[in-house]
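Just curious: can you write a single protein's sequence together with how it folds?
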Amino acid sequence: MAPAEGRDTPNLFGLDRDTLREAVTVRGAPAFHGTQIYRWMYARRELDPTRWTDLSVALRRTLADTARVEIGTIAARTESEDGTVKFLIHPTEGGAVESVFMVHGDRVTLCLSSQVGCALGCDFCLTAKMGLVRQMSAGEILGQIVLLMRDRDLIDQRFNLVFMGMGEPLHNYENVVSAVRILTDPDGFGISRRRITLSTAGLAPAIERLAVEDVRPRLAVSLNATTDDVRDRLMPLNRRYPLGRLLEACDAFSRETGDEFTFEYVLLGGVNDSTDDIDRLAAIVRSRPAKLNLIPFNPVPGALDYEATPHARVKEIRDRLLSARIPVSVRWSRGAEARAACGQLAILPGEAGRRRRS
């Protein structure tokens, strides 16, 4: 029985439980079969309708003829010496994104993209060079996870998920939140929300909206400057939601949820790493239920016009913050030689066909 083909054929993967129930009722089957399909696709990661054995043969045949269950494909892999693997993925509806598998000790983390490209134009981020190509659907977001789980044999292993790949997750709010709901549903992927982190450049109203969701990931806010003048230059979004407005949203998030969150701070040599910068940063973090993650800039020669803060200076900054009783850690680069580190993900013109395949 050949699967349905064609872009005009609906893709079941990524649909929530209620929509799947509707999908089977319009095909003449009882609604409860939609819940069974939901469990097959997300809890069991079985994507072949012919194997959905608690559905009738007739319904399985109907689904195979009138719908598709697709998650995209892995086009290439680039491996780093530290065990990081960057994947070039072709989502179901076209284009290309990058996802990253990272391992540190016994901890595995998958870094997910939420958009093909990004519209926010952060000056130190390679993804910004793409601009926004399109939003990814919930199914395309979830598809990255299944592809990496299969490729890295993670079926029975716990792992963390971070929305820190290509794109601004809160700019694709509905699809990202829909994906998170399926990820955290015990009948879906069954992943604890505490294992999922969403990183945002600072869409203040969306942060406040996320705070009142019944299911939400951990929040990380990409700060990267302690004055509006510098942040305006680094992150054009700051002109719309300046630091004061962003911090108001962070405070509202913590009041509403009771959750601790993370400030992320990319260290750019000679731009935001002065002693005054760090003292202002300490003041911002100290007054909030937040921890701080310092991220040494990952250069991309010829593409990004910034330099990394020297290694010794990064340690000085960390120690100064620790002495001020700020909970701080340093996210040292992983996967940089594979261009898989923070801020390095992008599909630039002509690249997709040149990547090394494995």
Summary: Residues 73-338 form a domain with the TIM Barrel fold (CATH 3.20.20.70). The longest helix spans residues 243-257.
